[in-house]
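hiii, so i know i said id send this last week but things got crazy w the move. better late than never?? heres the sequnce for the chain we talked about at the cafe, plus the structure i predicted for it. fair warning i was half asleep when i ran it
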Amino acid sequence: MSNSKVALITGASSGIGRVTAELLARRGLRVFGTVRRLEKSAPINGVELVEMDLRDDSSVQNAIETVITRVGRIDILVNNAGVGLIGAVEETSVAEAAALFDANVMGVLRTVRAVLPHMRKARSGRIVNVSSILGVLPAPYMGLYSASKHAVEGLSESLDHEVRQFGIRVSLVEPSFTKTNLESNSPKAATSISDYATETGKALPTIAERILSAPGPEDVANTIVKASLGAWRMRHRPSGEAALLGFLRRFMPAAPVDSGIRKTFGLAK
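okay and structure toks below
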């Protein structure tokens, strides 16, 4: 067995996950990246792809066992995979919300539950959950996505307290808008309510414009690498907007933060 650390990254087919996998492989780690369909996924230099659907218990367990069979351990788990959803809370059906939470929250729970027995046995490990700055801030017309990331925040902080007795630590990475296919292609809620039309007519183009003008995944991927390999701390934010918003949320009075959020999303004061 190689002495290189073993990292498993979910959602490695494109965007943040793909760049993170490449960066960790360049650092000399044995890297496994999960994809939903192997036959449709482009190879990544230095990365072994494993098929996994994070919404399916058996698929997650099979993927983890595949890695354990090949190399005997998993030192770093990066929960990067997830989905988006745009629309007013009232426009979002319970089924749409459940599907979102199944991917963004239950998907994290599935991978964590599958990996932790192996980390506990080794008495070491690092889990990095990719959240969002919208996990600590409200997001009008992205309310259910924001709620799912708030849930990941609470899960991660609680989990870190539980597993540090085994030499395992949990961290969060909180990016802001990032130019990736996931963010650009986030689905809209199926229902449309006319009373929201004036504001959504402003907010949705503003969101799309922010994504198009956002930096690519490289800064977020570098932040994930630091969270995976560096000294532990709970929260890691890429420089720029995410770091600024996190600072403002912590130290600014509520009123100016509220006003800034409405401005960001193109809403009237």
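btw The first strand starts at residue 6 and ends at 9. thought thatd interest u
miss u guys!!
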